[in-house]
Design a protein that fits this description.
Number of helices: 22
Strand content: 5-15%
Number of strands: 12
Helix content: 55-70%
Shape: elongated
Length: about 575
Amino acid sequence: MGSEVTASYLKNGVTIENLFNGKVDQEKIEKIKDCAKGGFTEDELQTLEADGIDIDLLKDNFADSKTDEDIQKKADDLKKIYCSDLAEFTGDKNSYANPELQQLEKAINNGVLKNLADEGYTKMQIIEIISIAFPNTGIQAKEDGKYDIPIGHDDQAKDVYTSFTIKLLEALGEDPEEISSAKDKLNDLKTQIAKLDSEITTLEYKISTEQDEIEKEMTEAIDKSTEIAEEQKEEAKNTVNSALNEYVNSKGEMTYEEFQQGLKSDLDGIAGTTDSKLSSVILTMLNCSDNMETLNADIKSLGGLYQKKSDLQDQASKAESELNSLIEDQKNNVASADEDANMVDPIGFTHNNTRYDFFVDKDNNNDLSNESEFLGAKNGFMELISLDTNKDNKVDASELSKSDIKVVVTHGNGSQNIKDAKEVFDSSDFIDLASYSEKNTALSNGNQLLGTFDVQFDDTLLDDKGYQTLDNIDWLNENYDFSDNKNSIGSSLSQEAIEKKLSDYTAQADDLEKRLFKAQGKVDDNIDVIQNKTIQQAQRSANSKGIIASMSLENNQNDKNVQEKPLEELEEIEEIEKEKDI
């Protein structure tokens, strides 16, 4: 272990400061570092606990330092287990046809990620191990603490990559807050049900013992009776036992009055008369029995426990459905599950220093909202192939138009605009699907070229081939104007930040008003006109800003996009200056 504790020695995002129950001081931090050098002994842990350090949190989250040799050895071990016999694969490595991806799925299902986390490997160390052991799956650790992971070019491949991200978070105990809360709720309900099951088992055993005692009492009473013939005694005993069993097994659904009435009827039938002394004697004896009184109370309690368990089971079933729904939502949006995961897979081409990328406007806002809208983000090149409705191995302008495909056009100066495909492609233009060639090569910008294809554009077969790439999301955010990023006030700003904006807007409006009255002394005839006009304009601007901020507060959970209107303070001041020159 190194000479001091670094963040990599602590798992799950825990810092040294998190370990203290009370006030943190540097001396205690140094004590943790000293103890960590050789691993924590029990005596050291007791000393740290006495100093106010949460040793349970420390033990749960402290990761022994792993060397590069440890990482390489672990990766080699996994590679030997899962990939040693695999033949070289030359196809689409981001499809499920890749045998290495299938082996990664097997490793995930075998709990490899959880095992690595339990052994003390940090998140990025686990990703590095996986990238070495399964090098052709496209999972790659980055220096900035993030990692690249493909989307997958078919549903099965996508499921494997999604499973990796989800299982990695689970292994590290990094469930999103709402999923963690849902799991806690479900586990609490299961704990309550388990406790009830224990109480029910105990009470059922007690009732069984009480039932045996009552049956013994009734048998003795029947044996002593001289009112009935010998041949009727055994039948009477069986009748009593059968009725008592039915009453007990009803678990409270049968009332004691119903039990008595049924037993009386059965006993009267044996005796052959409705005014049988046998039924009267036995029922009187039951009513006077302490055991019967206790049994009745316990059966009522058992019925209550079963009802409570039924209610908890209904709640648990609902909680489990809610949890599964949250997990499914998480699987459908892996990027939100792990902010360190970068993934996207666009298709496009370049011509005359202009880039054309195809996308599907899923939210119908006539804009490229985020990376998931790129054509190919869901199912790779198959999404483009699926547009070939006449099966001529070409996708032409009419097929693009029929599918409502849009194009984000990036000009040489970096500016972007959105167009319908029919605005970009002429009737003679087409994409040649048969010319697709798999590449799977690294690009200088850190992205990966998955394949190329021929494009006829402006009646010319382009020298620059069309491309299908696997792009780092950070690179995409730098090179594409995603509307989700531009309109983030409604979805990503905190309430505190929005309130600050509202305060700033109000302060700016007040400042404008003060400037107006400062100019008032230099203006004669037009002062009323200028004052009214400028105050109204400043108030409109401030109000619009305040309304936007308020809407953001109200709709922060609905991810509504709010477009801010420029304040135009300079124009307002210039207008005042012009009036002063009149």
